[in-house]
């Protein structure tokens, strides 16, 4: 059993400021931090830490940030042997300003994520033959996402698409190949091109071809809409959240990891809720994701 994660890798550069600068103004910041991010990398990290056999397809710059992030992912159990290094594009970067009130502004430079393209995906078709699940997000070119979904369908693999950032321009032709779409309450409206209630939006996605729709509800838990088994609701674990960065990525990585080891959908949802509940009690993205050893200790 194994998981193939395809997606983005970023270096997140966070700067703390008292307030946001006005146009043309220079301010002195308080501190700066460098964190590993990108939805693809976060989800691959979650799979690795939580015990899945996981391979990651991504593209980074042939630079210090790229090598550093890939090295870290390798250290937590992710197979990074197929990672693409670009000499022309730098590693994707997110520059985040955080003011004294906790509000933020974010500028994302896609960089080498743009080179996670159709040609690269096709060059690793063998990965689709050997995996059981393919996990995708939407921070790489859409034609590459669509190609990955079609390749997964070619080899009869289960596809999990986390539609973040959501866009209704993704081809509806590939919806019929998606086993689980995992939007939040906002993303489900965008992907369904509907402004209805939660259930209505989920059913619209199923009408468009998606087999199962798993909506994450933050502090309210998660709800799975299936065509044959009805709805499955799992409440969230009650914790004191201090940082929700990468909570959704942790949930997705944990969910596919649990499915891949043979858990039922409800069991996988509970496992994912538990993992993301731990993550939000810690600062950061990948460093906040728990290991399978921590999860096992909690279970006992």
Give the arrangement of secondary structure elements.
Blueprint: E1 3-6, E2 10-16, E3 31-37, H1 39-49, E4 54-57, E5 59-61, H2 64-75, E6 78-79, E7 84-86, E8 92-98, E9 104-109, H3 118-123, H4 125-130, E10 133-136, H5 142-154, E11 158-161, E12 180-181, H6 185-192, H7 198-207, E13 212-216, E14 222-226, E15 231-234, H8 247-260, H9 265-279, H10 292-299
Helix pairs in contact: 1-8, 6-7, 8-9
Architecture overview:
Helix content is 34%, strand content 22%. β14 and β15 form a beta hairpin. The model has no long low-confidence stretch (mean pLDDT 93). The chain contains 10 helices and 15 strands. 47% of the residues are buried. With 300 residues, it is α/β, with parallel strands linked by helices. The two termini are 25 Å apart. The chain has a 9-stranded mixed sheet, sandwiched between helices. The radius of gyration is 19 Å and the shape is globular. It has helices at 39-49, 64-75, 118-123, 125-130, 142-154, 185-192, 198-207, 247-260, 265-279, 292-299, and strands at residues 3-6, 10-16, 31-37, 54-57, 59-61, 78-79, 84-86, 92-98, 104-109, 133-136, 158-161, 180-181, 212-216, 222-226, 231-234.
